[in-house]
Structure formats: structure tokens, C-alpha cells
Amino acid sequence: MAKALKCNLCDNHATVHLTQILNNKIHKVDLCESCAQQKGVTDPNGFSLADLLIKSTGGEEAGADQALKCPTCGYTRRNFSKSGRLGCPDCYDYFKDTIDSILANMHKGTTHCGKVPVNARAHISLREEVSRLEEELKKAVDAERYEDAAQYRDRIQEVRKARDQNE
Amino acid sequence: MIIKPLLDSKAELTHGNVTKCPVVLSTRIRLARNLAAHLFPGWAAESERSEILANCFASIGSVTGMKRGYKFKIEELDDLQRKILYERHLISRELMSSNNGAGTLVSKDQSCVVMVNEEDHLRIQVLRSGFHFKRVWRTIDRIDSAIEERLPYAFSEELGYLTACPTNVGTGMRASAMMHLPGLVISNQMEKVIRAVNQLGIVVRGLFGEGSDASGSIFQISNQMTLGETEQQIIKRLSSVLESIIEQENNARGRLLEAERTKLFDKIARAYGILRSSHVMSSAEAMNLLSLIRLGLDIKLFEEENREILDRLLIESQPGHIQYSAKHLADSEERDVLRAAYLRTEFEKIQEPDFGDI
Q: What is the ipTM of this complex?
């Protein structure tokens, strides 16, 4: 006989087995009766697998480094696994590994392509300008066009300065 | 009572009065935003939350569209007032039970709401009667940009708007429509619809969102994913799903009218009878009966001019609103008596259904 499955959230015997297709990927969750009730799995209206997935992926990493703290706000990975929420904007950088794998399961993609605030827009276009100029500089150096290269170098410095002032 | 002026004025939700698409009661978009260089509300100390609240009240109060509106600090509202705001969708369940340092700004016509220190620093919400995603997006986009000029947001080039919960990161947008689907419910097809749309990343919930039941056959249908698509793509995908649900609902109604005409008319006539003459009524029963009357109105058994009364009653039959009109904290037994009395009076204005020659 197959091995009895354990609940993903606690260690009880799982009796509710749920499969949901999100983003063409199959997600399976096994739960015990009481966790299923608690999470509203039995109520098709109030239930979202995504909420569960955060917690179960968070849970799998238990023991790894749950005490890891965000240097900005002091939020720990344990806090995150427990609540599914983060402490501050910098937590996204600090817990990047954990969050990236969650996002890939949860959303359509992993990069933002919607609205961008105006001040971020200016910053992004300057950054893009720098990388374009750096490419030009490299080409100029490769082709031994040193006068052009000097001009690109000066221009890069200007843009970088503008960008730093912007921040 | 602090919120009295709000209750006494006309609101989008209770006086919006739209007839074009009776299946969609209202359209709503909400954006989750956080201020740069601050801890998220759930982790911030009370002093930081209070500072953010004061700051937001001052800056957002001057945004076009929010001027001359209302500002409420949650700590200044008693349980009843919180409940009423919740029943009018002006604060969320989370904000309702929140402690110090949280609040809400409501525009004059109650169509725009900015909740402060909910799960995120800002939850901007715009709601319109009827099916109007494009218009709602234009309004909320403008308000969001105006707020951003005053309060810099936490934003990352890669992940977009950073939110307390990764389920909202990216656009931070949840677009939803409140749909009245009695045809699908009566013909037992709702479960099938929910399963189908879930696979498309669309979520179906009850009237009051997460965890609420679907009394009155009213469902809130929204996008689940917020990252990896533009706002326009999300809205487009959701709209096409909603349009197909509208079609399914209309088909279900058509089939009921054809195959189970007498049964359906019986249901509606009984609902009318009970609303006009009962003496004890729970809010769930009221929702279900009002829902049937609304269906009757859609198939022209009642005069169209009653739609506004009906949409208002769907809100005013909620427990908090009944208590408010009772002017004291009524227990649930007393509320059921008051509700029945209120509905009896209101239904005197609505003529008996006209079944023609069945």
C-alpha cells in the first residue's frame, strides 16, 4: 500500500488532496481535515491555493536559516514563513531566493511590466543610457577610435552624475 | 456619530443606478502601494504608523477627486460605525479590526477610497456601478499618479510596486466585478463556472471578499496574479472572462424561463410575498429574497424604476445599517425584527409582480 501522506501544514495524516492548475503548472497540496477546514479548502469561494503555497514552500525550508534577519528592519525568515508577509521593501532583496521561487509559482511572470512611477522612470532611462554608452565605448575602444572613446567616457560620467543627483 | 454626513449623502454604490448591464452590479479596481523607506504597516511600530497616517491624510486630502471628501481615523470610530463602513465597502475587514494608526479617506461621492495602514500603507480603491473597467482604470491611474507626486512609493525595476505580501507585488492591482448570478446558482452551475475560471487565474469570492459566503447569489470575481502582465493585459483578460460569465448567466436565465417558467415565477412571487409581510428576517434570508426580486426586475416582472430601491436595500439590510437606523445596539434577534419591518415598509412602494399571461 502507498505510504500515508502527511499534511503540508502540520504533520497529521492528510485526507484532503487538492490539485490546481495555475500557469499551466500543476500544484498539489495534501492537507489534514482540520487544516483544510481552517484554510477554507472545503469552501470553494474563499479558497486560494496561492496563499497556501507560500506557507508550504516557506515551511519546507524550516530549519535552514529561519533566524536570518533583514538588516533594514529586523524581520526574520521565520516571521515570513509564519505570516506570508514581509517587513519592509528591502526584505525583497534580502529574502530574494525564497521570494523568487514563490513568485514564479504564484504569478504570470517574474518581472514587472506594468505602470512605472514617474521618478523611477527618469532613473531607469538614465540607467539605460549609461549601458548604451558603455557599449558604444567598448566598440570604440575595440576599433581603436580613441577620440570617440574619450567622448563616450566623458558622457558616461555626466549621465552617472545626473543619475546620482536624481536619487 | 462621526460618519453621519457620509450616510446622509448620495453614494455611487446606493445611488449609481445603472441599467445597461444588470448582471454586473459594480466594477472595482484597487492598487496596493507602499511608501519608500518605511516598514510595512504590519511590522512598523505604532509611532511610525501614526506618522504615516498623518502624512497621508495631509498629502492625499489635496489630490483632485479626494478634496472635500471624508477622513476617518479607525481609532475614533466605534464598532458600529466600522461595521457600516465595511458593509459599504469603504473599509476592509482587516482595517475594521485594526488598532491605532489606521484610517481611510473617502471621496465625496464615495467612489474613491484610500485606506491607510491596512496590509499595505495605501490601498487605493475606485468603484463604479455597472461594468466600466476602462473608466475606473483611468480614474485610479490619475489618483495614483497624483499621490505618487506627493509620497514617493517603494518600487523596484524588477518587481514593480513592492507590497507587504508577495501575492500583490508587481502592479499591486486587483480588478474585480461584483456579479449577480442567480441564473447560474438556481441551475446549479456556479461550481462548474468557478472551477473553469480558477484555471484561468481568476478568483471567485462572496460579496465581502475573502472568506465571505455568496448569499444573494452575488459574487466578487477578480484577477489573482499581479506580476508579469501590464494592468491593461490583466483587465483585458478579466473582462473577457466576465463577458463569458455574463453570457452563461443570460443563457441560464433563458433556459430557466423556458423550461421552468412556473417554478421560477413561483420563487419570485414567494420572495415578494415574504418581503412584504414577514416579521422576522435574517440578513442572509433578506439577501436571498432581494436577489430573487432583482432577477424578477431583470426579466421585467417589476418596474425598472425599482432597481435603485433594490440596490440600496441590498446594502441597507446588512446588520450594521439596521442597527444604525435603530439608533442603538440591537442584538441579532431584535435586528431581524427591525429588518423585516423596514423591508415591509419599503416593499409597499414596489408593486406586485406582473406575470402577464403565463
A: 0.82
CA distances from B155 to A74, A114, A127, B281, B290 (A): 20, 12, 15, 49, 44
Closest CA to B125 of B201, B42, B209, B44: B209
- All structural domains of chain B, each given as residue ranges with its CATH number in brackets, are 14-253 (3.30.590.10), 260-347 (no CATH)
Asked if the Cβ–Cβ distance from B119 to A44 is below 8 Å, we say no
Same domain? For A57 and A38 the reply is no
How high is the pLDDT of residue B133? 94
Q: Which residues of A touch B195 (CB under 8 A)?
A: 44
Rounded (5°) CA angle B158-B164-B166: 55
**Over the stretch B192-216, which tens digit does the pLDDT of each residue have?**
999 999 999 899 988 766 655 678 8
pLDDT at A1 over 50: no
pLDDT for res A49:
57
* Chain B, nearest residue to A80 by Cα: B165
Interchain contact, A45 vs B149, CB within 8 Å: no
For the segment B96-107, the average pLDDT, to the nearest whole number, is: 90
Are B149 and A118 within 8 A, CB to CB? yes
User: Residue B34's Cα: distance from chain center in Å?
Assistant: 23
Which of A50, A86, A117 is opposite residue B224, by nearest beta carbon? A50
Q: Note whether A57 and A103 are same-domain residues.
A: yes
A23 in B contact zone (CB under 8 Å): yes
Q: Interhelix angle for B231-259 vs B133-150, to 10°?
A: 150
The pLDDT, as a whole number, for residue A130 is: 81
Instruction: Assess A111–B contact: CB distance below 8 Å, yes or no.
Output: yes
Q: Quote the pLDDT of residue B208.
A: 66
Q: Are B77 and B91 within 8 A, CB to CB?
A: no
Quote the pLDDT of residue B23.
93
